[in-house]
Structure of GTP cyclohydrolase II:
Amino acid sequence: MAEVKDIVPITISRPVPLNAQFISFTDLPESDEHFAIRFPVPTSVAADEAPLVRVHSECMTGDVFGSARCDCGPQLTAAISRCGAFGGYVLYMRQEGRGIGLYNKMAAYLLQDSDLDTYAANERLNRGADERRYDSAVAMLEALELTDIRLITNNPMKIDAMESAGIKIIERIPTGRFDTAGNRAYLDAKKKIAGHLLP
Ligand SMILES: Nc1nc2c(ncn2[C@@H]2O[C@H](COP(=O)(O)OP(=O)(O)OP(=O)(O)O)[C@@H](O)[C@H]2O)c(=O)[nH]1
Ligand SMILES: [Zn+2]
């Protein structure tokens, strides 16, 4: 069974200074170094609400470098802002490229530039359209004793996977829609092909 390993206080500075705790785990179902960031609930916020949770899939290009090919960076920033304001958790899942890794995501981007959609490009590389599993996210939530949550997502597959593993999603909170100069086809494909609940 997964357990919390270390809890390290770290003040982060983006998008604004916030006190947080970075949390590592033992015995996750996957060997990746998934981690959680906990933001304390301010005293002005009712303590009896189900905790806010964002399960965020790593995107090196978007999260770290602000790539305009996707919406991951602004989604992460918005989730941190919300959790910073109301308390909550960001689970940072090392699932780069929907689980196929950075190099494969880069190859998939080139295929998208010669007009495959984001899911078909994965398949052209003989990979699954979306290879993510949510067992580790569920194990992390259980280790943190969070079984009834308010989940920030637009992705119905994420909701289904977590609910069928026993996590109760009391409320779904949309991530918002973040258009850039380069992510139109990506957002359209998420909505049309994967059924994302995007406005
Ligand atoms: N393979 C591949 N992965 C991508 C591409 N664009 C973004 N990603 C990855 O997709 C993951 C984010 O997943 P999305 O399907 O965009 O969104 P989501 O997290 O499932 O849904 P939300 O909870 O609503 O944000 C990150 O790991 C990104 O690195 C792409 O074109 N190809
Ligand atoms: Zn991204």
Summary: The chain has one domain: 3-95+132-192. The chain has a mean pLDDT of 96.
